[in-house]
Amino acid sequence: MSREQAGVTARAGTTPSGAPSGTGTTAGTGPGTAAVRRQIAGARRIVVKAGSSSLTTPRGTIDADRIDALVDVLAARRRAGTEIVFVSSGAIAAGLGPLGLTRRPADLATQQAAASVGQGLLVARYTSSFARYGLTVGQVLLTADDMIRRVHHRNAQRALGQLLDLGIVPVVNENDTVATDEIRFGDNDRLAALVAHLTRADALILLSDVDALYTGDPRRPGARRIANVHGPADLAGIELGGSGRVGTGGMITKVEAARIAGIPVVLTDAASAAHALAGEEVGTCFHPGEGRRLSTRHLWLAHATTGQGRVLLDPGAVDAVVRRRKSLLPAGVTGVEGDFAAGDPVDLCGTDGRVVARGLVNYDAGEIPDLMGRSTRWLARELGPEYEREIIHRDDLVILTTE
Ligand SMILES: Nc1ncnc2c1ncn2[C@@H]1O[C@H](COP(=O)(O)OP(=O)(O)O)[C@@H](O)[C@H]1O
Ligand SMILES: N[C@@H](CCC(=O)OP(=O)(O)O)C(=O)O
């Protein structure tokens, strides 16, 4: 998903928005804060995400001491009975040193190579570090592309569920070594929020190199810590800056992750992880939204994919898809752009070019011009019964407009 879509509300089928609502205060503790913190302390399943800067050194190697310190905290909570899913960034950052690089490379191929080297080193370290507590880790590498395909999605869910049932700590990252720009998720904050959905976690902890969300870049004087975020109103006027030394996404993706998660989320630094897990008043606590949540698959479709092309709709089709939640039929299509294949995510645009929805398309781009404007009955009669299918089925659609 593009950054500019960060404020867009996503809806699927008949499910209302999952965006947090309500107002709150940026200072002190608002109503319900203690209860939300207690929910974290009592959570039975927690996703913990650590950023690259918390796990690696400026020399581009893994930071064994900080990893061990974090594992001490996670293992203690695991041994106390809470299931932990650990989303670890740092593959690229940890592979820089071994490749003789001093900074994150711009080109994708070198990032892939660094990730391949760094991911192995990270997991080797987690394996030995958790073993100090008699705990076993299991590596789970996900791609955004995999996750929206119904079968693959169920597969990932089953694998994570089985690992947890077996008492194993899943260590999750994006599969950076094979992710191309088109199918790349790009940041682990939103990945962690979606993994929280996938595993039906009770809370999400985001660990960064900064101890909280601030009113502006904390490296500048005058920035104040925000203790609680109850809804979008609490974020008005806040400068959400870019990433630090080796991270990706900065605060924008963390705030968006909190919005997607729909469960209590605490953002703090790795040194405060134990306090955050204990429900203490550290970092920034994002209160869960009041709305019902989208299904995980639709969240992936809205937040983890990029449209591989565009399908242009006439006003009647926009109305059918957006307001009446119908499938998109060939009769309402006026144009097609891009070179996508059946099964790819595509953006649906109204006559003004605005994206109104995203869905998994049932045809290759090259097939659509011959179908446009035709009724399904005509298509079935002239071309065969297989052409009676929708361009996009309503179950594979997510609405990306607030209209
Ligand atoms: N309003 C803000 N509050 C806190 N941190 C901010 C803010 N704006 C920008 N930042 C920067 O975001 C960085 C964390 O993002 P990032 O580098 O992506 O972390 P990570 O690697 O942990 O995912 C911090 O180093 C901080 O300087
Ligand atoms: N998947 C990438 C990390 C992407 C990312 O979001 O990094 P960060 O902002 O440090 O959490 C890696 O392992 O290098």
From TrEMBL:
The keyword Kinase applies. Residues 12-24 have a biased composition (Low complexity). It comes from the Bacteria. Its main location: cytoplasm. Pfam families: AA_kinase, PUA. Substrate binds at residues 89, 176, 188. Transmembrane segments: none annotated. Gene3D superfamilies: Acetylglutamate kinase-like (3.40.1160.10), PUA domain (2.30.130.10). Residues 1-32 are annotated as: Disordered. It is found in: Cytoplasm. ATP binds at residues 49, 208-209, 248-254. It is an enzyme of class 2 (transferase). GO terms for biological process: L-proline biosynthetic process. Pathway: Amino-acid biosynthesis; L-proline biosynthesis; L-glutamate 5-semialdehyde from L-glutamate: step 1/2. Its EC number is 2.7.2.11. Residues 309-388 form the PUA domain. Keywords: Amino-acid biosynthesis, ATP-binding, Cytoplasm, Kinase, Nucleotide-binding, Proline biosynthesis, Transferase. One of its GO terms (cellular component) is cytosol. It catalyses: L-glutamate + ATP = L-glutamyl 5-phosphate + ADP. The keyword ATP-binding applies. InterPro entries: AceGlu_kinase-like_sf (IPR036393), Asp/Glu/Uridylate_kinase (IPR001048), G5K_ProB (IPR041739), Glu/AcGlu_kinase (IPR001057), Glu_5kinase (IPR011529), Glu_5kinase/COase_Synthase (IPR005715), Glutamate_5-kinase_CS (IPR019797), PUA (IPR002478). Catalyzes the transfer of a phosphate group to glutamate to form L-glutamate 5-phosphate. HAMAP family: ProB. Belongs to the glutamate 5-kinase family. This is Glutamate 5-kinase. The lineage of its organism: Bacteria, Bacillati, Actinomycetota, Actinomycetes, Streptosporangiales. The gene is proB.
